[in-house]
Write a structure and sequence with these properties.
Helices cover 37% and strands 22% of the residues. The chain has ten helices and ten strands. It has helices spanning 4-7, 21-30, 51-61, 80-89, 106-117, 135-143, 155-160, 165-171, 204-213, 232-243; strands at 8-11, 35-38, 64-73, 93-98, 120-124, 149-154, 176-181, 183-186, 192-195, 219-222. An eight-stranded parallel beta barrel has the order 1-2-3-4-5-6-7-10, surrounded by six helices. Strands 8-9 form a two-stranded antiparallel sheet. It is globular. The N and C termini lie close together (5 Å).
Length: 245
């Protein structure tokens, strides 16, 4: 069985309607978890004066910040603060995307910061509309850049792009730093709808078997974007399904 207590985090975006940190922490604990991937809705990664207070709130509550993001890098100096926050949090990865307008210089610039702070950058694929949402481009970027740049596979957005997240987890296994475990079904118009993981198009057990094999995958994150004002019940179902694998 998968150790959800010590390995599984939840994306704080799932709880975007619960902005005060005590409310967020209550929601995390209510679904049986104590790890979080923190997004910008709940923390200002560019304001160093607030780092200690924010991280202290999580520490006092016994909730680990396992990763942050998704952060969109453009290669500007202020982005170093994001690394400082992640390092201070004890995170292993920043869930990452890169501005196409800043390509290709943004990649080596950002990779140098990743090396400086001993953090990994996991590219988060955002579906078929995203320039980093297809296998050919991801393969090219990983082949031609620092080993600090790897993958944070979002299983649902891979499905939306007509890709197979299980095959991706196998192909990119050595560069897999994190995942977003998420599942979609699709309407006749092609629009995706979030569902409990393993009840849609994601082959959950096969995907998780490869995630467990990935030697550098430490930021394992659950995400369910539906039911914005009451996501807890469905997220708890997701946790239970993952725990049973």
């Amino acid at each position: 069985m998968f150790d959800v207590t010590n390995k599984l985090a939840v994306q704080s975006w799932c709880f975007r309607a619960f902005k005060p940190l005590p409310d967020l922490i209550h929601q995390i604990k209510a679904i049986g978890l104590k790890r979080v991937e923190l997004c910008g809705v709940h923390a200002e990664f560019g304001d160093e004066a607030k780092f200690e207070s924010v991280l202290g709130t999580f520490k006092d509550a016994g909730v680990k910040v396992a990763s942050i993001g998704v952060q969109y890098f453009q290669g500007v100096p202020d982005e170093e603060k994001w690394f400082k926050f992640a390092k201070q949090a004890g995170a292993t990865m920043i869930s990452t995307s890169f501005s196409l307008e800043a390509f290709p210089d943004v990649l080596p610039t950002t990779a140098k910061l990743a090396e400086k702070y001993d953090l990994n950058l996991g590219i988060h694929n955002h579906g078929g509309y995203d320039w980093l949402g297809n296998e050919a481009m991801l393969t090219y970027v990983l082949k031609n850049n620092s080993p600090r740049i790897g993958m944070c596979i979002d299983s649902a957005w891979a499905l939306q792009a007509g890709q197979n997240p299980v095959k991706w987890a196998e192909k990119f296994n050595d560069r897999l730093f994190g995942v977003h475990i998420k599942d979609f079904v699709f309407g006749r118009d092609g629009k995706p709808e979030d569902v409990v993981v393993g009840t849609g198009n994601l082959k959950l057990a096969e995907f998780m078997a490869l995630v467990n094999k990935a030697p550098k995958c430490q930021a394992i994150t659950l995400e369910y974007e539906g039911d914005e004002n009451n996501p807890g019940p469905k997220l708890k179902e997701c946790v239970e399904r993952i725990a049973a694998i």
